[in-house]
From TrEMBL:
<protein>
    <recommendedName>
        <fullName>DNA alkylation repair enzyme</fullName>
    </recommendedName>
</protein>
<dbReference type="Pfam" id="PF08713">
    <property type="entry name" value="DNA_alkylation"/>
</dbReference>
<dbReference type="InterPro" id="IPR014825">
    <property type="entry name" value="DNA_alkylation"/>
</dbReference>
<dbReference type="InterPro" id="IPR016024">
    <property type="entry name" value="ARM-type_fold"/>
</dbReference>
């Protein structure tokens, strides 16, 4: 059965659950670190592939905000992932009340519903970041990046991707001092990734000038991500500055 935008949250949760695979769920629980003391502690997976969630989200375009809010409250990771994919479709639709969708997104992040790196990465730039690019104001990203909460901070970092795609390095430049000292792996990876994207999408000299000054301050993971596309000689040079 193919569900459409008139589906209830209960029907959608049932459909996602029916698509699950126990072996994939067990693998996902390990991959997304759901054990005691790990960053995804206690998260529930049913074992649905991301391409299948994306496909399903396309049939749910136009799903009302209250239903999406209910889906975001689900304890099942894939249901929340599906809700974010669907929200992105709704946000980008012609005639969409984008401001309302951004507020739904903000509320979800604050409520702890966007609580793993894949959930942040599929939504922060495409919803919040895109809204702020249109507003020509990245100040809100600084507030998110300044948070000590891992997922809020990652939203602030990944949100800069929308500005990078618009060939604007200023958002990441302003976020950088807020996150450069954070040695948590998922902050390091996000920051290094955005640095690398700045070099690839805007200007490699922006990246190299930044690294010439700040490479000694970067964590090893962030630096490794930032210089991933460099020549072996250039990678070695910047690593030697630490």
């Amino acid at each position: 059965m193919t569900l459409g935008p008139d589906a209830s949250a209960a029907e959608i949760v049932s459909a996602v659950t029916s698509m699950g695979d126990a072996e994939k769920a067990a693998s996902a629980r390990r991959f997304f670190k759901t054990g005691p003391g790990e960053y995804g502690e206690g998260d529930e997976f049913v074992g649905v592939r991301v391409p299948d969630l994306r496909k399903m989200s396309r049939t749910l375009r136009g799903l009302p905000a209250p239903v999406i809010v209910d889906l975001l409250a689900s304890g099942i990771h894939e249901v929340r992932h599906l809700a974010l994919f669907t929200m992105t479709h709704n946000f980008t639709a012609r005639g969409s009340d984008r401001e309302a969708w951004v507020q739904v997104y903000r509320d979800a992040v604050r409520a702890g519903r966007v609580n793993n790196w894949d959930l942040v990465d599929c939504s922060a730039a495409d919803i919040l970041g895109a809204w702020l690019v249109a507003a020509e104001d990245h100040g809100e990203l600084l507030d998110w990046a300044a948070s000590d909460d891992l997922w809020r901070r990652r939203v602030g970092i990944i949100g800069t991707y929308a500005f990078i795609r618009a060939r604007r390095p200023d958002a990441l430049s302003d976020v950088a001092p807020l996150v450069i000292g954070d040695r948590r792996d998922l902050v390091q990876k996000a920051f290094g990734w955005m640095l690398r994207e700045t070099g690839e999408r805007i200007d490699i000299e922006i990246l190299t000038r930044y690294l010439d000054v700040h490479a000694p301050e970067l964590g090893r993971t962030a630096l490794s991500y930032a210089v991933e596309k460099f020549t072996p000689e250039d990678r070695a040079h910047y690593r030697s500055l630490k």
